[in-house]
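ok so I'm stuck.
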Amino acid sequence: MPDLSKSISVIIPAYNIEDLLEKCVDSVAAQDYPRELLQIIIVDDGSTDKTPQKADELAEKYQNVQVIHKKNGGSSSARNVGIEAATGDYLGFVDSDDYISGIMYSTMMEAAIRNDADMVQIARDEISESGDRLPDVLEPFDEEKEVTPTEHLRTLLMHTGDASFCTKLTRRELFTEDMRFPEGELNEDFYLMIHVLEKVNKLILLPQACYHVFYRTGSNSRKKAQDKDYFPSVFTDIVRNSDVVLDLVRKNHPELVQVAKRFGYVQRLDYMLHIPISKMTSDNSFYKKVVSDLRSGFGEMLGNKYLTGKQKAYLAVLSIAPKKVRTLHARIRGL
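replied:
not stuck anymore, here's the structure
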């Protein structure tokens, strides 16, 4: 039996999730980890359905579950409140529409202690509303890996790494007062991850897929297919964060500058491929700035060795005639 002497606090932000909260919390409470060392914090973020009552019932059901009720402020705000209340040696996060395998935290903690690691990551899978497993978002691997924070940052910039804190167990002392989730934004995990990585000694990556992401239509970052004009703010936040990480890389990791620039171009491409045509207007200052960035960096973009030929082609035509290209693209796809 591995040494499981360290305590864990698991933070679950919850907002209008009455139908799925119990499954999530049950999966955390069912961990094969000593109950006295597992603190579970549900942060009700001003829910307007029966989530508050459901959370209180779960606190009565499990001795190690506590509930914090707060005014609505978003997922980052809820997570930050949970961090303040956490007492564990390590922190974990679980989104309230997801669930985890019973061995997740014991597996991660064993690796953390054995390697004296500040952060451990476990693999994940993606589950559809019908219960089917979706294609892997990240390339699976078969054995434990140790990576440096810089190596992990590089995978994030190449879109081959996992920025989520939900798949991580992180030493609590890294969450200093200046290390909190940005409130009022999406893509919050990436923002905090790139900053926390500057303080991490090492990361241990585990191959077991113990975190189960449930893809629920209408959640913050998942587009409602029936609404053609729906444009989640996550697409603007990913562009902003690409500029934040470029500044960080220029300061601390100059060897990754071209990789970070590649990341910024790909994030802008994602933005340009998702913004509704109806929002590609002259009074949309953010859209105009993205187009301006692509045009001013045209030559540098074409010379970036980390971009694929297809990415360069898309970026080139979208920088020259964005609205015409998107309109033609929509006609071809029958939208």
